[in-house]
Write a structure and sequence with these properties.
The complex is a heterodimer.
Chain A (H helix, E strand, L loop, with lengths): L4 H39 L1 H12 E6 L6 E2 L5 E13 L7 H11 L4 H13 L6 E4 L4 H9 L7 E10 L7 H4 L2 E3 L2 H6 L10 E3 L2 H5 L1 H5 L3 E7 L5 E8 L7 E3 L3 H11 L4 E6 L6 E7 L5 H4 L4 H9 L8 H4 L9 H10 L9 E3 L2 E3 L6 E3 L7 E3 L1 H7 L2 H22 L21 H8 L5 H8 L9 H12 L3 E2 L5 E4 L15 E2 L5 H16 L16 E7 L12 H8 L2 E8 L6 E7 L5 H18 L2
Helix pairs in contact in A: 10-22, 14-16, 14-20, 15-20, 16-18
Chain B lengths: L9 H4 L3 H8 L4 H21 L4 H23 L2 H28 L7 E2 L4 E2 L1 H18 L7 H20 L3 H17 L4 H21 L3 H11 L8 H15 L10 H4 L11 H34 L3 H25 L18 H18 L7
Antiparallel strand pairs in B: 1-2
The chains are: A alpha+beta, B mainly alpha.
């Protein structure tokens, strides 16, 4: 083992050179390491700082509470009730089928619950919470809470659910909220709806969505790796949505609905002094509460396919020929345009013929009305008088005058989905039908048939304008927004637009004629005459044009369906009108006998308080 | 690099009183200072990484004290004695590794520990010392550089324990043990041709294994091992969070106790294998440069001591122990910063935990013994 000195030196030098190489390698490797750290800490510092912040800080939305909706007397029409629902986050559940089965042993889960769950599961993302059972009762909540540890990814969610206590009574006015769908997600500001699951779908709920929704708050929190909140860094409380007070009188609404009984139809009552809507009925209605948590396919199909179309808002979307209810407006047009005078008599032989034509335009009374002036023509609803008047005025002047009463245009009511009706004109016919206007078509517009279509709301609005002697207020259903609740006076009144008048006498004449409809011996709505207040009204009957081709022949049904629509417009009291009403009863027959009593009930309730 | 070759005996010529005391205890002042500073720095970081837990600090202090005692004890043993024990120590560690494997097999799982009732002991740790000692002992028997035959025998001596450790499986320790043996061979003058030959044969052999020797899932595992970010929820999560911690530290760091990645538990294993990331997050690049400077000082001092050693055994052993210490450092920091695959190797003297601490300090004890037991030789 003894080495020679030479070996010793050689080995020593060998080792020293190797150690030197090793030292150089160590320094080089550490330089590489340092370069790496410079890249991470200096070059990409900003990037990693962002990632570190993203790790640490989460923003949680604080959804605002939706505003309430009251009627004019403070009765609640839409509220938020706390409810408990059982929700599942599929991503966090290992064995979904088994979990659902086990849950079914603790609370009752119906077949339709499972179906809806499956349906929603396909629509939503894996990390979304999906309700399997809604409206749990307190006992079910207790049972679930006790078993909660067994079900990771299953939560009992407490939340405020929209509720409409009057159910079908106000469904067509208030509307309803429902789950935000894909389509709505594209249009809404996603950040202001983070944390909010529902949005107004129809009616006031939709029209006033921004007001009712409020402003989302947010909470910036520091979370750890498990997502547990360590502390709140910053918090901005949500601003609750504003409450709405409707001009609608729930009692009046109810009275009107009861007056309809089994009939289908619509009624709209407006206060002519400011355009506020007192009642807006589309009968039959539906329970809007069904839509809040998602309606089952079966229930929806039942509503959708029902003969009586409960989902259809007839009051603002139903377009009917106004029939004879248009006559006071045509009469006023005649006076205001100077086409004729009120006292001028026309002879009614029971039909009207255009010069040079053989076609007979018939009156509803075969024998005719004989010589009638304007008042008699309105009272007895003489068709021939109005054929002649319409013919004299021509479609252009007729169109011009009627459009000032809002026919053929949306009234601008604050409920979504309003239709515009149809006020025909030469231009309209040229554009849509590529045909010239025929004089005969003017005649039937004169008695409210033909192309002319109006919604019950338009009719009520025109009647209110007539009652207010030309003061034309846009109809409104929301009277005040909670920020203005301090004053009792309605704050949400539209700007009125005063119609040009050529002679105040003309308006009085027409209104007096409408009074005779109720009060005159030959008036078509004599049954409404009473000692409490004076009514100006006009009955109407609209032919039903559409009978479906493929319908089975069933005598009773077809007969009822082919019957005319009954219409009635009125306002009262004549001296100082406080209510203007339009009523349409589908397939009701004659306006005077079916529609007028409903209008009377509405006016009684409002004016007499019963 | 001139400081490797200071005039011999310059430092020893004028010993102060303190140096005299240290020399009496067979301790090397520069090395001791470096080690103490590093351990204190480590405790400082550990306090933050553990979430300001005094218990962690207390337990780590006890381990450090134990490790320093072991170092001092080892430093008293003359190198000749260490050399004489080398074959026996190697034989014992092989035997214990076999025992561990058998027990592990019976227990159906990875087993690294021998439970002696009062004391749990990891034979692989013993191998970290025994393998370089054995290889050095074997190579120092004959004149250097070693012959091909002796290289082959040394290779077998390295492979036997390494394979058993890898089987446990403890890849990190296997790597450290293997590198200890290989460094001994390298320092002994392993020819460049041999090293080049090894690399040239390793590349096609690896390719062949990849192409024909592996199934798809095995390839997937290798790929994930080489690039953990392929699996961002599994092993990649560690690396991604660690890189975020390091990168967000920047030049000066977020400040002591202010690391969000570590304190909010995004960073896994933050007191042990990933403590480097905590340091990088809280003290930034500045803190890292300081840490690396301390390590570099210790390593260079270790190499210097080895060059000053008086016989081949001492030189090779001192050199390879020092270089293993460097491998510890590089494998850990390389892993934490995403340069290297994930291999569980602690940051030496800084990571929380005691087993490797004792072995490392025993190694430094050997270095001190080598340096302080020199006899003045005529040059």
């Amino acid at each position: 083992m003894y080495v020679t000195l030479k070996d010793y030196l050689r080995e020593s030098r060998l080792f020293q050179s190797r150690a030197l190489i090793a030292a150089v390698l160590v320094v080089l490797v550490l330089a590489v390491l340092l370069t790496r750290l410079v890249v991470l800490q200096i070059v990409n510092h900003q990037h990693f700082t962002t990632l570190s912040q993203d790790n640490r800080v989460k923003v949680l939305p604080l959804p605002p509470t939706r505003g309430l909706i009251h009627d004019r007397n403070g009765l609640i029409l839409a509220q938020n009730l706390p409810t408990f629902s059982l929700e599942v986050i599929p991503e966090r559940v290992n064995d979904l089928a088994n979990t659902l089965q086990e849950l079914g042993k603790i609370v009752t889960i119906s077949e339709s619950d499972y179906k809806r769950f499956e349906q929603l599961r396909h629509q939503r993302r894996r990390f979304d919470s999906i309700p399997i059972r809604v409206r749990l009762d307190p006992e079910e909540v207790a049972r679930l809470t006790a078993n909660r540890h067994r079900f990771p990814g299953v939560e009992i969610e407490a939340k405020l659910l929209r509720h409409y206590p009057l159910e079908d009574k106000t469904a067509h006015v208030v509307g309803y909220v429902g789950r935000i769908n894909e389509q709505e997600l594209q249009t809404i500001d996603a950040s202001s709806y983070s944390g909010t699951s529902h949005i107004g779908k129809t009616g006031v709920e939709k029209y006033y969505e921004d007001t009712l929704h409020g402003k989302v708050g947010l909470q910036q929190v520091e979370v750890n790796a498990l997502g547990r909140i360590i502390r709140v860094l910053h918090s901005e409380p949500p601003v609750p949505g504003q409450n709405l007070r409707l001009s609608l009188d729930a009692g009046l609404q109810n009275a009107a609905i009861e007056a309809f009984g089994e009939e289908k139809g619509a009624a709209v009552a407006i206060d002519p002094r400011n355009g506020t809507i007192l009642a807006l009925v589309s009968h039959p209605g539906f329970d809007p509460n069904l839509f809040v948590e998602g309606i089952s396919a079966k229930e929806y199909a039942a509503l959708q396919q029902s003969e009586s179309k409960p989902l259809f808002n007839r009051a603002i979307r139903g377009q009917y020929p106004p029939g004879s209810t248009i006559k006071p407006f045509i009469g006023l047009a005649g006076l205001e345009t100077g086409t004729m005078s009120a006292s001028q008599k026309n002879y009614c032989p029971g039909f009207f013929q255009l010069p040079g034509h053989s076609h007979k335009y018939r009156d509803w009374r075969k024998g005719g009305h004989g010589g009638v002036n304007l008042e008699e023509a309105i009272t007895q609803s003489c068709d021939v008088y109005f054929y002649a008047l319409a013919h004299q005025m021509g479609i252009d002047r007729l169109h011009n005058f009627l459009s000032r009463f809002g026919f053929g245009q949306r009234t601008g009511v604050d409920i979504t989905g309003e239709r515009r009706g149809l006020l025909p004109s030469r231009e309209w016919k040229r554009e849509t039908r590529r045909q010239a206007w025929y004089p005969g078509e003017t005649l039937i517009v004169g008695i409210g048939q033909g192309y002319l279509l109006a919604t019950p709301l338009q009719l009520a609005h025109a009647t209110a304008t007539l009652a207010a002697r030309g003061m034309n207020y846009p109809p409104r259903v929301v009277e005040s927004i909670s920020s203005d609740y301090a004053s009792d006076a309605p704050s949400n009144i539209g700007k009125p637009n005063s119609l040009q008048q050529h002679g105040p006498g003309n308006w009085s004449k027409v209104i007096e004629s409408m009074a005779q409809v109720v009060e005159g011996q030959r008036g078509t709505a004599r049954s409404l005459k009473n000692d409490n207040y004076r009514i100006a009204g006009k009955t109407g009957t609209a032919q039903v044009f559409t009978v479906k081709q493929d319908e089975e022949y069933d005598e009773d049904k077809v007969e009822k369906k082919m019957r005319d629509h009954a219409l009635f417009i009125a306002f009262a009291p004549i001296e100082e009108p406080r209510i203007a009403v339009s009523v349409i009863v589908e397939n009701g027959g004659h306006g005077g006998s079916v529609a007028a009593p409903i209008a009377k009930r509405i006016m009684d309730y409002h004016l007499l308080g019963q | 690099m001139n400081r490797f070759y200071p005039p011999s005996g310059l430092r020893e010529s004028n010993p102060t009183k303190a140096e005299g005391l240290l020399a009496g205890l067979h301790l090397d002042l520069p090395l001791l200072t470096g080690l103490i500073l590093l351990c204190l720095y480590g405790l400082f970081v550990l306090y933050s990484a553990s979430g300001q837990d005094a218990g962690h600090i207390e337990r780590q202090l006890i381990r450090l004290a134990l490790a320093f005692i072991v170092m001092i004890v080892v430093a008293q043993i003359p190198p000749a004695q260490i050399r004489r024990w080398s074959p026996r120590l190697y034989a014992i560690s092989l035997l214990l590794l076999v025992v561990v494997l058998v027990i592990g097999h019976v227990g159906k799982g990875a087993q690294r520990w021998l439970d002696l009732g009062f004391f749990r002991f990891q034979p692989a740790e013993l191998a970290k010392l025994a393998v370089p000692m054995m290889i050095t002992w074997f190579l120092a028997e004959r004149s250097l550089p070693p012959s091909w035959r002796r290289i082959a025998i040394a290779g077998v001596m390295i492979l036997a324990p390494v394979l058993m450790i890898a089987k446990q499986p403890d890849l990190g320790t296997a790597l450290l043990v293997a590198s200890a043996g290989i460094f001994a061979l390298f320092l002994a003058g392993l020819s460049w041709r041999f090293m080049a030959g090894m690399i040239i044969t390793a590349v096609p052999a690896g390719w062949a294994l990849w192409e024909w020797g592996m199934r798809d899932y095995q390839r997937g595992r290798v790929l994930t091992f080489l690039d953990p970010e392929r699996d961002p929820l599994g092993s990649g999560y560690h690396i991604i969070q660690s890189k975020i911690a390091i990168g967000s530290g920047g030049l000066y760091g977020k400040g002591w106790l202010n690391g969000t990645q570590s304190h909010l538990e995004f960073l896994p294993e933050r007191t042990t294998d990933f403590i480097f990331a905590v340091l990088a997050e809280e003290f930034g690049l500045t803190g890292i440069v300081l840490l690396l400077a301390l390590y570099l000082f210790i390593i260079l001092r270790g190499l210097y001591i080895s060059t000053q050693a008086q016989d081949t055994f001492n030189r090779l052993l001192g050199g390879s122990l020092t270089l293993v210490f460097f491998v510890y450092l590089f494998v850990n920091t390389g892993m934490v910063s995403g340069l290297l695959p994930v291999v569980g190797v602690p940051l030496p003297l800084v990571s929380y935990g005691g087993t490797s601490l004792v072995t490392i300090m025993a190694g430094f004890g050997i270095l001190m013994s080598i340096h302080t037991h020199r006899k003045l030789l005529p040059t």
